[in-house]
Amino acid sequence: MKLIVSFIAVLYLTTSFAQTQTNVPTPAVQHFAQCMFSITDQTQLDELTVEFYNNHPEVERVRFDMNTQRALVITTGLTSFTEADFTSWFGQHSGTVYCVQIGVYGVDTMNSYPFTNCQ
């Protein structure tokens, strides 16, 4: 009799734990943005890199390539990310940005260099 009562108690506890909702945090969405730009001074690129990190805490990684004039930015925690948002981050250099591609990092395919689909 004790065995049956113990078995029912264990079965009840197992069922109640299985039905308890677990709060698993959803991972933050990471966006990527890549573009071409026209900045020919390495010092300006270095300053722009610091500005990206200091002014935009959602920026996880920034890469500016002087030789190919390409930029790649990975963000985290943004609910939306538009071309206008990204371009504005370049500040005084925003007029030099073109051929922008934005997507969800790890989901959307990044365009490979050289970008051939620029308009």
What can you tell me about this protein's structure?
The protein is of the alpha+beta class. The protein contains three helices and four strands, in the order H-E-H-E-E-H-E. It has helices spanning 2-19, 42-55, 83-88; strands spanning 31-36, 59-65, 70-75, 98-104. The chain has a four-stranded antiparallel β-sheet. The model has no long low-confidence stretch (mean pLDDT 84).
Sum this structure up briefly.
32% of the residues lie in helices and 22% in strands.
Key terms for this structure?
119 residues; 22% strand; alpha+beta
Write the layout of secondary structure elements.
Elements: H1 2-19, E1 31-36, H2 42-55, E2 59-65, E3 70-75, H3 83-88, E4 98-104
Antiparallel strand pairs: 1-3, 1-4, 2-3
- Number of helix segments? 3
What form results from the Cα inertia axes?
A: elongated
Strand order of the largest sheet: 2-3-1-4
Helix content: 25-40%
Strand-and-helix sequence, N→C?
A: HEHEEHE
**DSSP strand (E) fraction?**
15-25%
Uncertain runs: none
Give the N-to-C terminal Cα separation. Answer: 80 Å
Radius of gyration: 24 Å
Main pleated sheet: 4 strands, antiparallel
Instruction: Give the helix/strand class.
Output: alpha+beta
Average residue-wise pLDDT: 84
Total beta strand runs: 4
